[in-house]
Amino acid sequence: MTSPALDLLGIGNAIVDVLARADDAFLAAQGMAKGGMTLIDAAAAERIYAAMGPGVESSGGSAGNTCAVAAALGARVGYLGKVADDGLGKVFAHDIRAAGVRFPSAPLVGGAPTARCLILVTPDAQRTMNTFLGACVAFGPDDVDEAEVASAAVTYLEGYLFDPPAAQAAFRKAAKAAHAAGRKVSLTLSDPFCVGRHRAAFRAFVKEETDILFANEAELLSLYETEDFATALAAVRQEVGLAAVTRSEKGSVITAGAETVEAKAVPTTVVDTTGAGDAYAAGFLAAHAKDLALAECGRWGSVAAAEVISHFGARPQADLKALVG
Q: What CATH number does residue 66 fall under?
């Protein structure tokens, strides 16, 4: 087996994030479920965007954020995702390449516009997301470059991508190509509501294709339809070789076979929780690429997550290499 050219290849919804501050009254007036991610159409995107306060725009998307953070930690990273040949598409492509991530995907011409996620951050640092998938729905099996997948030690798949119809087939194709090349497949569950929408498909993919699973506590409980964390952890241990489950200020729990490791959260002032799980996965996988111990992988994840939630926006602003020491 040839040595991988990339440590990590992310596949996900290529989305431009628009972040703005808001209060609970704004969420209530807009009929939003606080703390979750809701899929919206073009008309709702225009209406919410017009009602939002001043925003900060940057390339985002869950797997895109993970790729940018992993690259900042020195990992060799690529990304596959669909943007349109429009202004926001150019913003996305520029940002992710500037972060040091290989982005070979061709833009969509003549179809839906580039996706955007309208993120409202309330004073308690919770983020409420409204996502217009736009060009992302065009991502399908033909967009999975099997050579790119085979060149990566780990292919990292974003659970949000289960929403567009053709994407689950793309996931299966990517997993098949990765395993055929002797590589690993990693999945992040992304959101408990997303898990609820596609639970059967997620359960099958976790059990049949996933080598490394990332989830937060709520997502894991949703996956296994239980309210008991120990029960969910026992279930995932049976199905996945390596799982890392984040629990906010309680840190994270990592399982690998009979082994269980706990990693503490890194204390910080929480400003915006957008991208916390994405950053944790990036730190974990960047350390994993260096064959570091599981406890150290968890520590890198905690450090990366703490940096990202200490400011507005989901991309790192400090020197992460220095922070992980």
A: 3.40.1190.20
